[in-house]
Amino acid sequence: MIVVVDERSLVTSGYSAWFAREGITTTGFAPDDFGDWVATVQENDIMAVEAFLLGECADRNKFPHKIRERCAAPVIAVNETQSLEHTLELFQAGVDDVVRKPMHVREILARINAIRRRYGNGDAGTQIGPIRVFSDGRDPQVNGIDFSLPRRERRILEYLIANRGRRLNKAQIFSAIYGIFDSDVEESVVESHISKLRKKLREQLGYDPIDSKRFLGYSINLD
Predict the structure, then answer these.
(1) Domains of the chain with CATH codes
(2) Where is the Response regulatory domain (predicted)?
């Protein structure tokens, strides 16, 4: 999930639609609401955020520090005008990258993945055991062969692999796949997606790589 902050609701809804076409969930905030949210949100929810996109808003330079106090997800600022001074101020404030509109969401995703690679938090092509997953909308591969999955199942597999070594509960997976504030979908749908994913992986690998423990959540073991 990507969090978008902008003072214009039209902009946040626009990003939501653009990212949705790439299979990525977003949650939009007005600046005042975001400041309160990032300071008080539960750890499970903020750990589900894959990146923050900061659009035009007052006090934008204060947000990177607030984000860093809670998580290490990439922070990208989006400028609508070209200004070297403004760009340097944003980098000094702690953003990981500054981009100028217009920009295709695939380039934003590529920049997010590049930042994660630099910090060792991910890769556009991450190979774990027989499975390679991508963060740019492509299907995963099993033993070098494309392994077609529905969008939600693909995103769950990517999220489990990105957080390998950690056990993720249903709420964390739901937030990552559907967004923190999606009240139209029940969390129980995660169990259905994971059940289907496990069956397909078992058929392809000959074993079930997803371990589940009641009350603790899910983890993936491919080593």
Answers:
(1) 1-117 (3.40.50.2300), 124-218 (1.10.10.10)
(2) 1-116
